[in-house]
Amino acid sequence: MNIVLSWDLFIVVFFAIIIAYSFIVGRNQTLKIIIGTYIATLTADGVANLVDKYLGGDAPILKLLAGPNGDEVLISMKILLFIVVIVIIAVRGGFEVSILSERNLPIRVLMTFLFGVLNAGLIVSTLLLYVSGLSLIGANELVTASTLGSDSLLVQLMIDNYSLWFSLPAIALVVVSFVEGDTE
Questions:
Q1: Does the predicted model carry a pTM greater than 0.90?
Q2: Which residues make Cβ contacts (< 8 Å) with residue 132, sequence separation at least 6?
Q3: 3-class SS of residue 60
Q4: Element holding 18 (H helix, E strand)
Q5: How far is CA 63 from each of CA 120, 129, 132, rounded to the nearest angstrom?
């Protein structure tokens, strides 16, 4: 069997790892990670935009420090900050999430799987957006998979539907909150 490394394989494996991790840590911790991912997305985007505004652009200090790879340094910084903030919030976040605690086992398993898929989609699409050189604020720009050096249909679908991946976890959380609130 000959396995070829590709963006599609990366996405499928990343989804599988995040979904498996969701079952390991549980539904409530997965929701905490989703909330942390939203915060990390905005933090990484904001800090990178500030760095680009004050150290790049018209005052190319970033290009002087990083040479011709200034854009790659900015992208790398954004991805690193994104991951660090998610980890810090997941491990040391000063809040707890508790939802659907009294449901039967099949519902809990289904909800854990659903939130795991939504978490994976949010994280993977955000990473692909950052790797493509875009920011959340400029996510309406059309990007092709060739920007990432790939002809992957899966990469293109993740980037093209970033707004959907970004909004679905929040919508699901609101819907589940309404459903849970009705049963109490």
A1: no
A2: 143, 147, 148, 159
A3: coil
A4: helix 7-25
A5: 33, 22, 19
